[in-house]
Write a structure and sequence with these properties.
heterodimer, A: alpha/beta, Rossmann fold, 10 strands, globular, B: mainly alpha, MetI-like fold, 74% helix, binds adenosine-5'-triphosphate, binds magnesium ion
Chain lengths: 261, 307
Protein backbone atom coordinates (compact mmCIF):
# COMPACT_ATOMS: atom_id res chain seq x y z
CA UNK A 1 0.00 0.00 0.00
CA UNK A 2 1.10 3.51 -0.76
CA UNK A 3 2.25 5.55 2.19
CA UNK A 4 0.01 8.38 3.22
CA UNK A 5 2.75 10.98 2.91
CA UNK A 6 2.85 10.99 -0.91
CA UNK A 7 0.31 12.27 -3.35
CA UNK A 8 0.39 16.02 -2.81
CA UNK A 9 0.04 18.80 -5.35
CA UNK A 10 1.26 22.37 -5.31
CA UNK A 11 -0.38 24.60 -7.90
CA UNK A 12 1.31 27.90 -8.57
CA UNK A 13 -0.42 30.50 -10.76
CA UNK A 14 -1.93 27.82 -13.01
CA UNK A 15 -3.78 28.92 -16.12
CA UNK A 16 -5.34 26.95 -18.95
CA UNK A 17 -5.88 28.23 -22.47
CA UNK A 18 -8.03 26.50 -25.08
CA UNK A 19 -6.98 27.83 -28.47
CA UNK A 20 -7.00 31.53 -27.73
CA UNK A 21 -9.54 31.49 -24.92
CA UNK A 22 -8.07 31.42 -21.44
CA UNK A 23 -10.59 29.45 -19.39
CA UNK A 24 -8.86 29.43 -16.03
CA UNK A 25 -6.14 31.69 -14.64
CA UNK A 26 -4.15 32.38 -11.53
CA UNK A 27 -4.97 29.27 -9.55
CA UNK A 28 -2.61 28.87 -6.62
CA UNK A 29 -3.44 26.21 -4.06
CA UNK A 30 -2.12 23.07 -2.48
CA UNK A 31 -3.71 19.66 -2.35
CA UNK A 32 -2.77 17.75 0.73
CA UNK A 33 -1.94 14.06 0.75
CA UNK A 34 -4.42 11.50 2.05
CA UNK A 35 -7.27 13.97 2.12
CA UNK A 36 -10.35 14.78 0.09
CA UNK A 37 -10.37 18.09 -1.74
CA UNK A 38 -13.64 19.22 -3.29
CA UNK A 39 -13.75 21.51 -6.32
CA UNK A 40 -17.00 23.45 -6.45
CA UNK A 41 -18.38 26.23 -8.59
CA UNK A 42 -21.00 26.97 -11.19
CA UNK A 43 -21.10 25.16 -14.52
CA UNK A 44 -18.38 26.28 -16.93
CA UNK A 45 -16.06 27.69 -14.26
CA UNK A 46 -13.27 25.31 -15.20
CA UNK A 47 -13.46 22.60 -12.55
CA UNK A 48 -13.00 19.79 -15.05
CA UNK A 49 -10.37 21.81 -16.84
CA UNK A 50 -8.34 22.25 -13.66
CA UNK A 51 -8.81 18.59 -12.72
CA UNK A 52 -7.49 17.46 -16.10
CA UNK A 53 -4.30 19.46 -15.52
CA UNK A 54 -3.39 17.21 -12.64
CA UNK A 55 -3.04 14.06 -14.77
CA UNK A 56 -2.28 15.96 -17.96
CA UNK A 57 -5.37 14.65 -19.70
CA UNK A 58 -5.62 18.14 -21.19
CA UNK A 59 -2.68 17.15 -23.37
CA UNK A 60 -4.95 14.73 -25.23
CA UNK A 61 -7.38 17.44 -26.29
CA UNK A 62 -4.78 19.19 -28.42
CA UNK A 63 -4.65 22.97 -28.67
CA UNK A 64 -4.53 23.34 -24.88
CA UNK A 65 -1.80 25.32 -23.10
CA UNK A 66 -1.21 25.06 -19.40
CA UNK A 67 0.69 27.90 -17.74
CA UNK A 68 2.16 28.26 -14.26
CA UNK A 69 3.59 25.35 -12.32
CA UNK A 70 2.13 22.15 -10.93
CA UNK A 71 4.32 20.19 -8.56
CA UNK A 72 3.37 16.60 -7.78
CA UNK A 73 5.29 15.44 -4.71
CA UNK A 74 7.79 18.14 -5.52
CA UNK A 75 8.19 17.29 -9.24
CA UNK A 76 7.01 19.68 -11.93
CA UNK A 77 4.65 17.48 -13.97
CA UNK A 78 4.86 19.74 -17.00
CA UNK A 79 8.62 19.36 -17.11
CA UNK A 80 9.95 17.85 -20.33
CA UNK A 81 11.35 14.88 -18.45
CA UNK A 82 7.89 13.82 -17.20
CA UNK A 83 6.02 11.26 -19.29
CA UNK A 84 2.28 11.93 -18.98
CA UNK A 85 1.57 8.24 -19.55
CA UNK A 86 3.54 7.34 -16.43
CA UNK A 87 2.05 10.21 -14.49
CA UNK A 88 -1.43 8.79 -15.12
CA UNK A 89 -0.48 5.52 -13.48
CA UNK A 90 0.08 7.50 -10.27
CA UNK A 91 -2.78 9.94 -10.76
CA UNK A 92 -5.90 8.00 -11.68
CA UNK A 93 -9.20 9.42 -12.85
CA UNK A 94 -12.87 8.48 -12.59
CA UNK A 95 -15.31 10.15 -14.94
CA UNK A 96 -18.82 11.50 -14.69
CA UNK A 97 -20.40 8.80 -16.79
CA UNK A 98 -19.30 5.27 -15.92
CA UNK A 99 -17.13 4.08 -18.81
CA UNK A 100 -16.28 0.42 -18.30
CA UNK A 101 -14.55 -1.26 -21.24
CA UNK A 102 -16.58 -3.77 -23.26
CA UNK A 103 -15.02 -6.77 -21.55
CA UNK A 104 -15.42 -8.82 -18.39
CA UNK A 105 -15.37 -7.36 -14.88
CA UNK A 106 -12.02 -9.05 -14.26
CA UNK A 107 -10.46 -7.76 -17.47
CA UNK A 108 -11.64 -4.25 -16.71
CA UNK A 109 -9.83 -4.20 -13.40
CA UNK A 110 -6.79 -6.03 -14.77
CA UNK A 111 -6.56 -3.62 -17.69
CA UNK A 112 -4.13 -1.16 -16.12
CA UNK A 113 -1.85 -3.70 -14.43
CA UNK A 114 -1.62 -5.76 -17.63
CA UNK A 115 -0.43 -2.72 -19.55
CA UNK A 116 2.26 -2.26 -16.97
CA UNK A 117 3.57 -5.76 -17.26
CA UNK A 118 1.72 -7.77 -14.63
CA UNK A 119 1.19 -11.16 -16.28
CA UNK A 120 1.16 -13.76 -13.53
CA UNK A 121 -2.34 -15.08 -12.89
CA UNK A 122 -1.97 -15.20 -9.10
CA UNK A 123 -0.67 -11.67 -8.95
CA UNK A 124 -3.48 -10.38 -11.18
CA UNK A 125 -6.09 -12.27 -9.16
CA UNK A 126 -4.82 -10.69 -5.96
CA UNK A 127 -4.71 -7.21 -7.48
CA UNK A 128 -8.23 -7.51 -8.89
CA UNK A 129 -9.60 -8.74 -5.59
CA UNK A 130 -7.88 -6.02 -3.59
CA UNK A 131 -9.01 -3.27 -5.96
CA UNK A 132 -12.60 -4.47 -6.00
CA UNK A 133 -12.58 -4.64 -2.22
CA UNK A 134 -11.24 -1.10 -1.94
CA UNK A 135 -13.99 0.06 -4.29
CA UNK A 136 -16.58 -1.81 -2.17
CA UNK A 137 -17.71 -3.93 -5.11
CA UNK A 138 -16.10 -7.26 -4.26
CA UNK A 139 -18.98 -8.77 -2.32
CA UNK A 140 -21.39 -8.12 -5.19
CA UNK A 141 -19.25 -9.50 -8.00
CA UNK A 142 -16.86 -12.03 -6.50
CA UNK A 143 -18.78 -14.94 -8.01
CA UNK A 144 -19.24 -13.35 -11.41
CA UNK A 145 -15.89 -11.87 -12.34
CA UNK A 146 -16.25 -13.26 -15.85
CA UNK A 147 -19.52 -11.45 -16.41
CA UNK A 148 -19.54 -8.66 -19.00
CA UNK A 149 -19.13 -5.26 -17.37
CA UNK A 150 -22.16 -3.85 -19.22
CA UNK A 151 -24.39 -6.21 -17.25
CA UNK A 152 -23.73 -4.29 -14.05
CA UNK A 153 -25.95 -1.47 -12.84
CA UNK A 154 -24.82 2.13 -13.30
CA UNK A 155 -23.68 2.44 -9.69
CA UNK A 156 -21.82 -0.87 -9.89
CA UNK A 157 -20.23 0.21 -13.16
CA UNK A 158 -18.98 3.39 -11.51
CA UNK A 159 -17.50 1.43 -8.60
CA UNK A 160 -15.93 -0.88 -11.19
CA UNK A 161 -14.33 2.19 -12.76
CA UNK A 162 -13.02 3.19 -9.34
CA UNK A 163 -11.61 -0.31 -8.86
CA UNK A 164 -10.07 -0.14 -12.32
CA UNK A 165 -8.36 3.13 -11.43
CA UNK A 166 -7.18 1.75 -8.09
CA UNK A 167 -5.61 -1.31 -9.69
CA UNK A 168 -2.54 0.64 -10.79
CA UNK A 169 -2.05 1.73 -7.15
CA UNK A 170 -2.36 5.46 -7.83
CA UNK A 171 -1.42 7.94 -5.11
CA UNK A 172 -4.11 10.31 -6.29
CA UNK A 173 -7.62 9.73 -7.60
CA UNK A 174 -9.33 12.50 -9.57
CA UNK A 175 -13.12 12.24 -9.65
CA UNK A 176 -15.18 14.42 -11.95
CA UNK A 177 -18.76 14.39 -10.64
CA UNK A 178 -18.53 10.64 -10.07
CA UNK A 179 -22.01 10.32 -8.62
CA UNK A 180 -24.00 12.81 -10.66
CA UNK A 181 -25.39 10.10 -12.94
CA UNK A 182 -26.34 7.81 -10.06
CA UNK A 183 -29.30 7.22 -7.74
CA UNK A 184 -29.11 8.21 -4.04
CA UNK A 185 -28.17 4.74 -2.81
CA UNK A 186 -25.37 4.34 -5.33
CA UNK A 187 -24.25 7.86 -4.49
CA UNK A 188 -24.11 6.90 -0.83
CA UNK A 189 -22.02 3.85 -1.70
CA UNK A 190 -19.57 5.97 -3.69
CA UNK A 191 -19.31 8.44 -0.80
CA UNK A 192 -18.63 5.60 1.62
CA UNK A 193 -15.97 4.30 -0.73
CA UNK A 194 -14.33 7.72 -0.84
CA UNK A 195 -14.31 7.90 2.96
CA UNK A 196 -12.60 4.48 3.07
CA UNK A 197 -10.06 5.37 0.42
CA UNK A 198 -8.85 8.67 1.71
CA UNK A 199 -6.50 7.14 4.25
CA UNK A 200 -4.48 5.67 1.40
CA UNK A 201 -5.22 7.90 -1.60
CA UNK A 202 -5.41 11.63 -2.14
CA UNK A 203 -8.78 12.42 -3.65
CA UNK A 204 -9.76 15.46 -5.67
CA UNK A 205 -13.46 15.49 -6.43
CA UNK A 206 -15.56 17.83 -8.55
CA UNK A 207 -19.14 18.08 -7.37
CA UNK A 208 -22.22 20.21 -7.88
CA UNK A 209 -23.76 18.86 -4.73
CA UNK A 210 -23.00 21.18 -1.80
CA UNK A 211 -24.10 18.66 0.81
CA UNK A 212 -21.84 16.10 -0.76
CA UNK A 213 -18.88 18.48 -0.68
CA UNK A 214 -19.63 19.29 2.96
CA UNK A 215 -20.02 15.62 3.90
CA UNK A 216 -17.00 14.08 2.28
CA UNK A 217 -14.29 16.70 1.82
CA UNK A 218 -11.61 17.97 4.14
CA UNK A 219 -10.82 20.99 2.03
CA UNK A 220 -12.90 22.85 -0.51
CA UNK A 221 -11.90 25.06 -3.41
CA UNK A 222 -14.49 27.41 -4.89
CA UNK A 223 -13.99 28.55 -8.48
CA UNK A 224 -15.94 31.19 -10.31
CA UNK A 225 -16.04 32.75 -13.73
CA UNK A 226 -17.70 36.07 -13.24
CA UNK A 227 -17.79 37.05 -16.89
CA UNK A 228 -17.09 35.26 -20.14
CA UNK A 229 -14.64 38.05 -20.97
CA UNK A 230 -12.34 36.96 -18.18
CA UNK A 231 -10.97 33.59 -17.19
CA UNK A 232 -12.34 31.74 -14.21
CA UNK A 233 -10.52 32.18 -10.93
CA UNK A 234 -10.10 30.47 -7.64
CA UNK A 235 -12.15 32.53 -5.21
CA UNK A 236 -11.41 30.74 -2.01
CA UNK A 237 -9.80 27.54 -0.80
CA UNK A 238 -9.67 26.21 2.71
CA UNK A 239 -10.95 23.89 5.37
CA UNK A 240 -14.37 22.61 4.35
CA UNK A 241 -15.99 23.21 7.71
CA UNK A 242 -14.78 26.79 7.81
CA UNK A 243 -15.86 27.42 4.22
CA UNK A 244 -19.34 26.10 4.79
CA UNK A 245 -19.90 27.87 8.12
CA UNK A 246 -17.90 31.03 7.81
CA UNK A 247 -16.67 31.71 4.27
CA UNK A 248 -14.20 34.54 3.83
CA UNK A 249 -15.64 35.73 0.53
CA UNK A 250 -19.17 37.01 -0.06
CA UNK A 251 -19.36 35.18 -3.39
CA UNK A 252 -18.53 31.88 -1.74
CA UNK A 253 -21.29 32.40 0.75
CA UNK A 254 -23.75 33.33 -2.00
CA UNK A 255 -22.88 30.21 -3.99
CA UNK A 256 -22.97 27.82 -1.05
CA UNK A 257 -26.28 29.10 0.17
CA UNK A 258 -27.64 28.76 -3.33
CA UNK A 259 -28.14 32.39 -4.11
CA UNK A 260 -26.48 32.17 -7.52
CA UNK A 261 -24.82 29.72 -9.86
CA UNK B 1 -62.09 16.97 -21.88
CA UNK B 2 -63.88 18.71 -24.68
CA UNK B 3 -62.44 20.86 -27.42
CA UNK B 4 -64.37 23.79 -26.04
CA UNK B 5 -62.42 23.90 -22.80
CA UNK B 6 -59.13 24.31 -24.69
CA UNK B 7 -60.14 26.16 -27.82
CA UNK B 8 -56.61 27.22 -28.88
CA UNK B 9 -54.97 23.86 -28.60
CA UNK B 10 -54.95 21.49 -31.51
CA UNK B 11 -55.22 17.83 -30.81
CA UNK B 12 -53.56 16.66 -34.00
CA UNK B 13 -51.62 17.73 -37.03
CA UNK B 14 -53.48 19.32 -39.91
CA UNK B 15 -54.91 16.89 -42.44
CA UNK B 16 -52.61 17.92 -45.28
CA UNK B 17 -49.55 17.24 -43.15
CA UNK B 18 -50.78 13.78 -42.37
CA UNK B 19 -51.55 13.18 -46.04
CA UNK B 20 -48.08 14.37 -47.08
CA UNK B 21 -46.50 12.11 -44.52
CA UNK B 22 -48.40 9.08 -45.72
CA UNK B 23 -47.43 9.79 -49.34
CA UNK B 24 -43.76 10.02 -48.38
CA UNK B 25 -44.00 6.85 -46.33
CA UNK B 26 -45.51 5.04 -49.27
CA UNK B 27 -42.90 6.33 -51.69
CA UNK B 28 -40.14 5.09 -49.41
CA UNK B 29 -41.81 1.72 -48.98
CA UNK B 30 -42.22 1.48 -52.74
CA UNK B 31 -38.52 2.18 -53.34
CA UNK B 32 -37.62 -0.53 -50.87
CA UNK B 33 -39.90 -3.00 -52.58
CA UNK B 34 -38.62 -1.94 -56.00
CA UNK B 35 -35.07 -2.79 -54.96
CA UNK B 36 -36.16 -6.28 -53.94
CA UNK B 37 -38.11 -6.73 -57.18
CA UNK B 38 -35.10 -5.70 -59.26
CA UNK B 39 -32.89 -8.11 -57.34
CA UNK B 40 -35.36 -10.91 -57.93
CA UNK B 41 -35.68 -9.98 -61.61
CA UNK B 42 -31.91 -10.17 -62.05
CA UNK B 43 -31.83 -13.61 -60.49
CA UNK B 44 -34.71 -14.86 -62.63
CA UNK B 45 -33.19 -13.40 -65.77
CA UNK B 46 -29.81 -15.00 -65.10
CA UNK B 47 -31.48 -18.27 -64.16
CA UNK B 48 -33.60 -18.45 -67.30
CA UNK B 49 -30.68 -17.76 -69.59
CA UNK B 50 -28.57 -20.29 -67.71
CA UNK B 51 -31.22 -23.03 -68.05
CA UNK B 52 -29.84 -24.43 -71.29
CA UNK B 53 -26.33 -24.72 -69.89
CA UNK B 54 -27.60 -26.43 -66.78
CA UNK B 55 -29.52 -28.89 -68.97
CA UNK B 56 -26.75 -29.52 -71.53
CA UNK B 57 -23.64 -29.45 -69.37
CA UNK B 58 -24.96 -29.72 -65.81
CA UNK B 59 -24.39 -27.16 -63.04
CA UNK B 60 -22.17 -29.43 -61.00
CA UNK B 61 -19.93 -30.44 -63.86
CA UNK B 62 -19.49 -26.78 -64.77
CA UNK B 63 -18.61 -25.76 -61.23
CA UNK B 64 -16.17 -28.63 -60.79
CA UNK B 65 -14.79 -28.72 -64.34
CA UNK B 66 -11.08 -27.94 -64.57
CA UNK B 67 -10.83 -26.90 -68.22
CA UNK B 68 -12.20 -23.83 -69.89
CA UNK B 69 -11.99 -24.36 -73.66
CA UNK B 70 -15.39 -23.14 -74.86
CA UNK B 71 -14.38 -22.77 -78.51
CA UNK B 72 -12.65 -26.05 -79.22
CA UNK B 73 -14.33 -28.83 -81.20
CA UNK B 74 -15.19 -30.69 -78.01
CA UNK B 75 -15.88 -27.63 -75.84
CA UNK B 76 -15.28 -27.93 -72.13
CA UNK B 77 -16.94 -25.50 -69.80
CA UNK B 78 -15.17 -25.91 -66.45
CA UNK B 79 -15.56 -22.94 -64.13
CA UNK B 80 -12.68 -23.88 -61.85
CA UNK B 81 -10.00 -21.96 -63.74
CA UNK B 82 -12.11 -18.83 -63.42
CA UNK B 83 -13.21 -19.50 -59.83
CA UNK B 84 -9.68 -20.27 -58.65
CA UNK B 85 -8.35 -17.37 -60.72
CA UNK B 86 -10.82 -15.04 -59.06
CA UNK B 87 -9.80 -16.39 -55.67
CA UNK B 88 -6.09 -15.80 -56.38
CA UNK B 89 -6.75 -12.26 -57.52
CA UNK B 90 -8.89 -11.67 -54.43
CA UNK B 91 -6.27 -13.16 -52.12
CA UNK B 92 -3.54 -10.93 -53.53
CA UNK B 93 -5.91 -7.96 -53.34
CA UNK B 94 -6.60 -8.68 -49.67
CA UNK B 95 -2.93 -9.07 -48.79
CA UNK B 96 -2.35 -5.67 -50.35
CA UNK B 97 -5.40 -3.80 -49.15
CA UNK B 98 -6.21 -5.13 -45.66
CA UNK B 99 -3.01 -4.12 -43.85
CA UNK B 100 -2.74 -0.82 -45.69
CA UNK B 101 -6.46 -0.11 -45.39
CA UNK B 102 -6.76 -0.92 -41.70
CA UNK B 103 -3.58 1.00 -40.90
CA UNK B 104 -4.90 4.01 -42.80
CA UNK B 105 -8.23 3.76 -40.99
CA UNK B 106 -6.44 3.64 -37.62
CA UNK B 107 -4.41 6.67 -38.56
CA UNK B 108 -7.39 8.66 -39.76
CA UNK B 109 -9.64 7.71 -36.87
CA UNK B 110 -7.16 7.82 -34.00
CA UNK B 111 -4.16 9.96 -34.80
CA UNK B 112 -4.87 12.47 -37.53
CA UNK B 113 -5.75 16.05 -36.67
CA UNK B 114 -9.15 17.25 -37.75
CA UNK B 115 -7.79 18.93 -40.87
CA UNK B 116 -5.69 15.97 -41.94
CA UNK B 117 -8.74 13.82 -41.41
CA UNK B 118 -10.84 15.94 -43.75
CA UNK B 119 -8.15 15.97 -46.42
CA UNK B 120 -7.61 12.22 -46.12
CA UNK B 121 -11.31 11.53 -46.39
CA UNK B 122 -11.68 13.53 -49.58
CA UNK B 123 -8.58 11.92 -51.06
CA UNK B 124 -10.14 8.54 -50.35
CA UNK B 125 -13.41 9.54 -51.96
CA UNK B 126 -11.44 10.73 -54.94
CA UNK B 127 -9.62 7.40 -55.07
CA UNK B 128 -12.95 5.61 -55.17
CA UNK B 129 -13.92 7.73 -58.15
CA UNK B 130 -10.93 6.77 -60.33
CA UNK B 131 -12.35 4.72 -63.23
CA UNK B 132 -11.09 1.16 -63.10
CA UNK B 133 -9.91 1.33 -66.71
CA UNK B 134 -7.47 4.03 -65.63
CA UNK B 135 -6.09 1.77 -62.94
CA UNK B 136 -5.91 -0.98 -65.55
CA UNK B 137 -3.90 1.26 -67.85
CA UNK B 138 -1.51 2.17 -65.07
CA UNK B 139 -1.15 -1.49 -64.26
CA UNK B 140 -0.35 -2.29 -67.88
CA UNK B 141 2.14 0.52 -68.21
CA UNK B 142 3.97 0.19 -64.91
CA UNK B 143 3.08 -2.88 -62.90
CA UNK B 144 3.00 -5.61 -65.55
CA UNK B 145 6.46 -4.90 -67.02
CA UNK B 146 8.03 -4.48 -63.57
CA UNK B 147 6.59 -7.76 -62.36
CA UNK B 148 7.84 -9.55 -65.47
CA UNK B 149 11.36 -8.24 -64.97
CA UNK B 150 11.55 -8.45 -61.17
CA UNK B 151 10.04 -11.93 -60.90
CA UNK B 152 11.70 -13.20 -64.11
CA UNK B 153 8.43 -14.33 -65.63
CA UNK B 154 7.44 -14.91 -69.27
CA UNK B 155 4.60 -12.48 -68.85
CA UNK B 156 3.67 -9.91 -66.24
CA UNK B 157 -0.02 -10.42 -66.95
CA UNK B 158 -0.74 -12.40 -63.81
CA UNK B 159 -3.14 -12.79 -60.90
CA UNK B 160 -0.45 -10.99 -58.92
CA UNK B 161 -0.57 -7.86 -61.10
CA UNK B 162 -4.36 -7.86 -61.27
CA UNK B 163 -4.61 -8.51 -57.52
CA UNK B 164 -2.45 -5.53 -56.64
CA UNK B 165 -4.57 -3.19 -58.74
CA UNK B 166 -7.84 -4.70 -57.49
CA UNK B 167 -6.47 -4.24 -53.97
CA UNK B 168 -5.96 -0.57 -54.73
CA UNK B 169 -9.55 -0.42 -55.91
CA UNK B 170 -10.82 -2.08 -52.73
CA UNK B 171 -8.85 0.29 -50.50
CA UNK B 172 -11.41 3.11 -50.29
CA UNK B 173 -14.14 0.70 -49.22
CA UNK B 174 -11.96 -0.93 -46.58
CA UNK B 175 -10.63 2.36 -45.24
CA UNK B 176 -13.91 4.20 -44.99
CA UNK B 177 -15.92 1.35 -43.49
CA UNK B 178 -13.26 0.43 -40.92
CA UNK B 179 -12.84 4.09 -40.08
CA UNK B 180 -16.59 4.34 -39.49
CA UNK B 181 -16.42 1.35 -37.16
CA UNK B 182 -13.55 2.84 -35.17
CA UNK B 183 -15.20 6.22 -35.08
CA UNK B 184 -18.30 4.60 -33.59
CA UNK B 185 -16.35 3.39 -30.55
CA UNK B 186 -17.37 5.79 -27.76
CA UNK B 187 -14.76 8.43 -26.98
CA UNK B 188 -15.03 7.87 -23.23
CA UNK B 189 -13.51 4.40 -23.64
CA UNK B 190 -10.38 5.96 -25.13
CA UNK B 191 -10.26 8.59 -22.39
CA UNK B 192 -10.68 5.83 -19.82
CA UNK B 193 -7.80 3.87 -21.27
CA UNK B 194 -5.49 6.88 -21.56
CA UNK B 195 -6.30 7.89 -17.99
CA UNK B 196 -5.07 4.46 -16.86
CA UNK B 197 -1.63 5.20 -18.21
CA UNK B 198 -1.92 3.62 -21.63
CA UNK B 199 -0.37 5.13 -24.71
CA UNK B 200 -2.52 5.86 -27.72
CA UNK B 201 -1.18 2.77 -29.44
CA UNK B 202 -2.00 0.57 -26.48
CA UNK B 203 -5.45 2.12 -26.42
CA UNK B 204 -6.01 1.38 -30.09
CA UNK B 205 -4.77 -2.16 -29.71
CA UNK B 206 -6.58 -3.01 -26.47
CA UNK B 207 -9.85 -1.09 -26.76
CA UNK B 208 -10.57 0.45 -30.14
CA UNK B 209 -9.66 -2.44 -32.43
CA UNK B 210 -11.42 -5.15 -30.39
CA UNK B 211 -14.48 -2.94 -30.09
CA UNK B 212 -14.47 -2.19 -33.81
CA UNK B 213 -13.41 -5.66 -34.92
CA UNK B 214 -16.69 -6.74 -36.42
CA UNK B 215 -16.90 -3.52 -38.41
CA UNK B 216 -13.38 -4.02 -39.69
CA UNK B 217 -14.31 -7.59 -40.63
CA UNK B 218 -17.34 -6.32 -42.51
CA UNK B 219 -15.15 -3.77 -44.28
CA UNK B 220 -12.86 -6.55 -45.41
CA UNK B 221 -15.82 -8.63 -46.60
CA UNK B 222 -17.16 -5.72 -48.63
CA UNK B 223 -13.66 -5.28 -50.04
CA UNK B 224 -13.70 -8.96 -51.04
CA UNK B 225 -17.08 -8.50 -52.68
CA UNK B 226 -15.66 -5.59 -54.60
CA UNK B 227 -12.57 -7.57 -55.61
CA UNK B 228 -14.42 -10.67 -56.80
CA UNK B 229 -16.78 -8.66 -58.94
CA UNK B 230 -14.16 -6.34 -60.42
CA UNK B 231 -14.10 -6.75 -64.20
CA UNK B 232 -12.09 -4.21 -66.16
CA UNK B 233 -8.84 -4.40 -64.21
CA UNK B 234 -8.72 -8.20 -64.33
CA UNK B 235 -9.66 -8.27 -67.98
CA UNK B 236 -6.71 -6.01 -68.69
CA UNK B 237 -4.13 -7.42 -66.29
CA UNK B 238 -4.84 -11.06 -65.40
CA UNK B 239 -3.88 -12.66 -68.72
CA UNK B 240 -6.92 -14.94 -69.15
CA UNK B 241 -5.41 -18.41 -69.41
CA UNK B 242 -7.63 -21.48 -69.41
CA UNK B 243 -6.09 -23.73 -66.76
CA UNK B 244 -6.53 -23.95 -63.00
CA UNK B 245 -3.71 -21.81 -61.56
CA UNK B 246 -1.77 -23.03 -58.54
CA UNK B 247 0.18 -19.84 -57.98
CA UNK B 248 -0.67 -16.13 -58.39
CA UNK B 249 2.39 -15.69 -60.61
CA UNK B 250 0.72 -17.09 -63.73
CA UNK B 251 -1.89 -15.80 -66.11
CA UNK B 252 -5.35 -16.53 -64.81
CA UNK B 253 -8.89 -15.95 -65.91
CA UNK B 254 -11.56 -14.67 -63.59
CA UNK B 255 -15.32 -15.00 -63.70
CA UNK B 256 -16.14 -11.37 -64.49
CA UNK B 257 -13.22 -11.17 -66.94
CA UNK B 258 -14.41 -14.28 -68.75
CA UNK B 259 -17.98 -13.10 -69.02
CA UNK B 260 -17.10 -9.63 -70.22
CA UNK B 261 -14.40 -10.87 -72.57
CA UNK B 262 -16.43 -13.59 -74.31
CA UNK B 263 -20.00 -12.37 -74.25
CA UNK B 264 -19.55 -10.25 -77.37
CA UNK B 265 -18.29 -13.19 -79.43
CA UNK B 266 -20.82 -15.88 -78.66
CA UNK B 267 -23.96 -16.85 -80.55
CA UNK B 268 -26.88 -15.41 -78.73
CA UNK B 269 -28.95 -18.19 -77.18
CA UNK B 270 -26.23 -20.75 -77.90
CA UNK B 271 -24.62 -23.13 -75.44
CA UNK B 272 -21.56 -20.98 -74.73
CA UNK B 273 -23.87 -17.98 -74.24
CA UNK B 274 -25.93 -19.88 -71.71
CA UNK B 275 -22.82 -21.13 -69.91
CA UNK B 276 -21.65 -17.55 -69.44
CA UNK B 277 -24.99 -16.80 -67.80
CA UNK B 278 -24.53 -19.75 -65.48
CA UNK B 279 -21.13 -18.35 -64.57
CA UNK B 280 -22.69 -14.96 -63.89
CA UNK B 281 -25.20 -16.68 -61.65
CA UNK B 282 -22.40 -18.32 -59.65
CA UNK B 283 -20.59 -14.99 -59.38
CA UNK B 284 -23.74 -13.20 -58.33
CA UNK B 285 -24.44 -15.81 -55.66
CA UNK B 286 -20.90 -15.44 -54.29
CA UNK B 287 -20.96 -11.65 -54.08
CA UNK B 288 -24.49 -11.70 -52.70
CA UNK B 289 -23.54 -14.03 -49.87
CA UNK B 290 -20.40 -12.03 -49.07
CA UNK B 291 -22.32 -8.77 -48.90
CA UNK B 292 -25.03 -10.38 -46.82
CA UNK B 293 -22.48 -11.61 -44.27
CA UNK B 294 -20.89 -8.16 -44.15
CA UNK B 295 -24.27 -6.51 -43.65
CA UNK B 296 -25.29 -8.82 -40.83
CA UNK B 297 -21.97 -8.26 -39.08
CA UNK B 298 -22.20 -4.47 -39.52
CA UNK B 299 -25.73 -4.40 -38.15
CA UNK B 300 -24.62 -6.32 -35.05
CA UNK B 301 -21.74 -3.92 -34.62
CA UNK B 302 -24.10 -0.95 -34.72
CA UNK B 303 -26.38 -2.50 -32.13
CA UNK B 304 -23.47 -3.03 -29.80
CA UNK B 305 -23.05 0.63 -28.82
CA UNK B 306 -26.69 1.29 -28.10
CA UNK B 307 -26.16 0.97 -24.39
N1 LIG C 1 -12.10 20.65 -24.90
C1 LIG C 1 -12.35 21.96 -24.80
N2 LIG C 1 -12.08 22.78 -25.84
C2 LIG C 1 -12.34 24.11 -25.74
N3 LIG C 1 -12.84 24.71 -24.67
C3 LIG C 1 -13.14 23.94 -23.60
C4 LIG C 1 -12.91 22.54 -23.61
N4 LIG C 1 -13.28 22.03 -22.42
C5 LIG C 1 -13.73 23.09 -21.69
N5 LIG C 1 -13.64 24.23 -22.40
C6 LIG C 1 -14.02 25.58 -21.92
O1 LIG C 1 -13.45 25.80 -20.66
C7 LIG C 1 -14.38 26.37 -19.78
C8 LIG C 1 -14.49 25.54 -18.52
O2 LIG C 1 -15.04 24.27 -18.84
P1 LIG C 1 -15.07 23.07 -17.82
O3 LIG C 1 -15.62 21.89 -18.54
O4 LIG C 1 -13.75 22.92 -17.21
O5 LIG C 1 -16.11 23.62 -16.75
P2 LIG C 1 -16.72 22.85 -15.50
O6 LIG C 1 -16.53 23.72 -14.35
O7 LIG C 1 -16.20 21.48 -15.41
O8 LIG C 1 -18.26 22.85 -15.87
P3 LIG C 1 -19.36 21.73 -15.51
O9 LIG C 1 -19.69 21.94 -14.08
O10 LIG C 1 -20.50 22.09 -16.39
O11 LIG C 1 -18.77 20.39 -15.80
C9 LIG C 1 -15.69 26.49 -20.54
O12 LIG C 1 -15.83 27.84 -20.95
C10 LIG C 1 -15.52 25.63 -21.74
O13 LIG C 1 -16.13 26.21 -22.86
MG1 LIG D 1 -17.06 19.52 -15.65
Amino acid sequence: MVTAASGSFELDDVSVTYGNETAVAGVTMSIEPASVTALIGPSGCGKSTLLRCLNRMNDELGNVKVGGRILFDGVDIYDRSVDPVELRVRVGQVFQKPNPFPMSIFDNVAYGPRTHGVRRKAELDALVEESLKRAALWEEVKNSLKKHAFELSGGQQQRLCIARALATSPEVLLMDEPASALDPISTQQIEDTIAELKSSVTIVIVTHNMQQAARISDRTAFMLRESMDFPAQLVEVGDTRVMFTNPADKRTEAYITGRFG
Amino acid sequence: MTDASFPRRRTGRPAFRRAAESVVTRAIAFSGIAAIVILAAITVFLGMNALRAVGDVGLWSMITGTDWFPTSKEPSYGFLPAIVGSLWVTAVALVVSVPVGVAAAIYISEFASRRTKEVAKSVIEFMAAVPSVVLGLMGLAVLVPSIRVLMRLDTGLTAFAAGIMVGVMALPTIISISEDAMHAVPADLRTGSLALGNTRWQTVHKVVLPAASSGVFAAVMLGVGRAIGETMVVLMLAGNSGIVPNTPLVSVRTMPGTIAGEMAEVVQGGEHYSVLFAMALVLFAMTFIINLVADVVLENQRKRWRR
